[in-house]
Predict the structure.
Amino acid sequence: MSVAAKASKSILPPFLVFMATAGTYTFISARGEGSKIDDARTRFEESRHRQELRITHGEEPIHEGTRYPAAA
């Protein structure tokens, strides 16, 4: 049996374990990062909306393509 055949047999199981571990870790950490980014975007948009209401003296600013929540 050649050295290449022995090497390919011996590296596959550790590689699969590594891929499974890395994939699981990435999935878990990416989910947390995604929710943090969404929360930060929501805080920014709400803050921007409040500031624009101050600037316009309570008038609803007109913007196309923004995702502001309904004024409460």
Notes: The chain has a mean pLDDT of 80. Residues 1-72 form one domain. The CA atoms of residues 21 and 60 lie 50 Å apart.
